[in-house]
Design goal:
Layout: H1 2-56, E1 58-65, H2 71-81, H3 104-117, E2 119-124, E3 127-132, H4 141-147, E4 153-159, H5 166-177, E5 182-187, H6 196-207, E6 211-213, E7 215-218, E8 226-229, E9 234-237, E10 250-252, H7 258-264, H8 266-282, H9 288-292, E11 297-301, H10 310-320, E12 327-328, E13 333-334, E14 342-350, E15 359-367, E16 370-371, E17 376-378, E18 383-385, E19 391-394, E20 397-400, E21 403-404, E22 409-414, E23 423-425, E24 442-448, H11 454-467, E25 471-475, E26 481-485, H12 489-502, E27 506-510, E28 515-520, H13 526-534, E29 539-541, E30 547-551, H14 554-563, E31 568-570
Parallel strand pairs: 1-3, 1-4, 4-5, 5-11, 6-11
Antiparallel strand pairs: 2-3, 7-8, 8-9, 9-10, 12-13, 14-15, 14-23, 15-22, 16-21, 17-18, 17-23, 19-20, 24-26, 24-27, 25-26, 25-29, 28-30, 28-31, 29-30
Bound molecules: guanosine-5',3'-tetraphosphate.
Length: about 575
């Protein structure tokens, strides 16, 4: 019994030790796990903070102007100040030179360049700046409208001598409709031009903006002495030199600096003081929220060619311009700090190499992070896609990137999966809104000139339309295909590309259409049935099958609208 009891004591004590050990082990394990969990949480938090910081430091914007106002020059100078290029001239203009209405070879050559210049990114004072290129040529206005869906703000460039021009009016109208924050940059102050105050009046009247100057020019043209920077409260004197690199400018901190009077003369100094008083009395004080809400537009002056006023513009821009904004989808407002990725295609660029018919789809990241080799959901096609080489754009180069953040643009190689307006997500079923088609200005029938190549022609048309080169309408009556474009130039581009990229010969035949209107109606109503019967000849389907009325004149459109009051005639495809 003693032996037994000692055995049992030993067993008890050894099981006690084992229990203790297990407890100890568990405790440690628990500690390790909780430490690990803590560590993981900490890492997640750091990543989340990093993610939020990345969003905060991004500024994605577009520069818009009438051709020749100086958009390309300004873009280049911004890159110069951002340290992305060392000398102006490194970024080639992708604008189609004036008068090139029939020079599509030039367009082809430039198309190659514009892939690289579609997005120009650089870092300035720790802000990641993405400039989205917008073609200035009016025949490519549709492209510009679409690009504007991907920007969070814009800078409008106006030529001091020419003032507000037609193309600027159209583009600003789109920005105003969407409440995009706008900064106005009045360029070419080294040339004789309109009076600064008259010009600001013109901007208010023609563009429907409410402006407030953040700088004032001192003189103009031959007499251009410099700029008083209201934003930074200092004065820069103009020296017409070192256009290609960043030169040092003479700079005064105060209007009372005795050196300033010596430089600009007492009369000019007196005028400047009066003008500043006038500004205080007449224009509203700058209010960032009003600017962000699209209700107030700051104006700055300068000369892009002379690097003058550009850095001041950039300094002001990074402080006031919005970080990536939320975007409306059909189901909800998608916020940039939503951790799940969502983005949309706003531009498709055909590859220049005719042997590889792949394209580059430009995606604006709206929320979450976009990661290389991660599967994403293509909402329209309902399928998962993975991308092994997403491109990011730095200055004029493109590079493969592993991770991109809201506000960034990635270029994805595409073999025909994407259309403009497509949404890509981490799994959510949603579709971003706001990439409508507008009525084209020119309409022509497209005819196949080589019956053996009908398939190639159909495929070519299909893909060019996906790229947004033009719009396709199919007549209800006989199925004939009508191409609608913003400018006459696109017909040449289409013909050339169909032949060179798809081996399909086509010709165009004039068609008298004034405007395409998208129809919204109760299809069961007698009114609609009558409209359909009477206007049969003028009805067509757009590429997504929506009903469109091709009115042959403004008069007939008006008459039709007056007659069928229950039918809505929309100017854009999104209503
Ligand atoms: P865009 O992209 O808006 O079409 O205009 P771009 O920058 O190409 O400028 C159009 C013309 O205006 C260019 O001259 C450019 O040098 C000039 N320019 C731009 N900014 C200024 C400025 O601040 N002052 C003056 N005086 N001129 C300016 P170009 O002769 O058409 O072309 P280029 O031969 O100089 O390239």
């Amino acid at each position: 019994p003693t032996g037994l009891s000692s055995l049992s004591t030993r067993i008890t004590s050894s099981s006690f030790i084992a229990l203790k050990n297990t407890q100890y082990f568990c405790k440690n394990l628990f500690r390790i796990f909780s430490l690990q969990a803590l560590f993981v949480i900490l890492l997640q938090q750091i990543a989340c903070m990093g993610f939020l910081e990345e969003i905060k430091r991004r500024r994605t914007f577009g520069i818009i102007s009438h051709p020749d106002a100086g958009k390309t020059t300004l873009t280049e100078k911004l890159l110069l100040f951002g340290g992305a290029i060392q000398e102006a001239g490194a970024v080639k203009s992708n604008k189609i030179k004036k008068g090139a209405t029939s020079d599509f070879m030039e367009i082809e050559r430039q198309r190659g360049i514009s892939v690289a210049t579609s997005v120009l990114a650089f870092v300035y004072k720790d802000k990641k700046i993405n400039i989205l290129d917008t073609p200035g040529h009016k025949d490519f206005a549709e492209d510009t409208f679409r690009t504007l869906t991907a920007v969070d703000s814009v800078i409008v460039v106006i030529d001091v001598a020419k003032g507000v021009e037609e193309q600027t009016e159209k583009l600003v109208e789109v920005c105003r409709m969407r409440k995009i924050p706008i900064i106005v940059f009045i360029n070419k102050l080294d040339r004789e031009g309109k009076d600064a105050f008259d010009l600001m009046d013109e901007v208010e009247q023609k563009l429907g903006l409410k402006v407030t100057p953040l700088s004032v020019p001192i003189g103009m043209g031959y007499d251009f002495k410099g700029i008083y920077n209201i934003w930074e409260r200092n004065i820069q004197l103009f020296q017409d030199e070192s256009k290609q690199t960043i030169g040092k400018k003479e700079h005064f901190e105060s209007l009372d600096d005795p050196g300033l009077e010596a430089e600009i003369g007492s009369t000019r100094l007196k005028n400047l003081k009066e003008e500043l008083e006038l500004i205080k009395g007449v224009y509203p004080t700058f209010d960032q929220q009003e600017y962000l809400d699209g209700n107030l537009q700051p104006v700055l002056f300068g000369s892009a060619l002379n690097n003058f006023g550009v850095q001041e513009l950039l300094n002001c821009f990074i402080e006031i311009a919005p970080k990536p904004l939320a975007k409306q989808s059909d189901t909800r407002l998608v916020e940039p700090d939503d951790e799940k990725f969502a983005g949309f295609v706003f531009k498709i660029h055909a590859n220049m190499d005719p042997n590889h018919r792949d394209r580059l789809a430009f995606i604006k990241i709206v929320s979450g992070t976009f990661e290389r080799n991660k599967p994403y959901h293509h909402v329209r096609l309902k399928k998962k896609l993975k991308f092994s080489s997403p491109n990011a754009f730095f200055a004029e180069k493109k590079q493969i990137v592993d991770i991109s953040y809201p506000g960034d643009i990635v270029g994805l190689h595409d073999t025909g999966n994407f259309k403009i307006g497509d949404t890509l997500t981490a799994g959510d079923i949603l579709q971003f809104k706001g990439i409508p088609s507008f009525s084209p200005e020119h309409f022509r029938f497209i005819n196949n000139n080589d019956p053996l190549k009908a398939k190639q022609l159909a495929k070519g048309i299909d893909q060019l339309m996906d790229e947004g080169v033009a719009q396709l309408f199919t007549l209800n009556l006989n199925g004939r295909k009508v191409i609608g474009t913003v400018g006459a130039l696109q017909f040449e581009v289409i013909q050339y590309r169909l032949l060179h990229e798809y081996g399909a010969k086509c010709s165009f035949e004039n068609l008298n259409v004034h405007k395409a209107c998208w129809i919204e109606a109760n299809t069961e109503s007698d009114d609609f049935k009558e409209f359909q019967r009477i206007k049969q000849k003028f009805l067509a389907k757009d590429k997504s099958g929506k009903l469109v009325f091709l009115a042959d004149s403004a008069f007939s459109l008006q008459m039709t609208q007056d007659k069928y009051r229950d039918i809505q005639f929309h100017n854009t495809s999104e209503f």
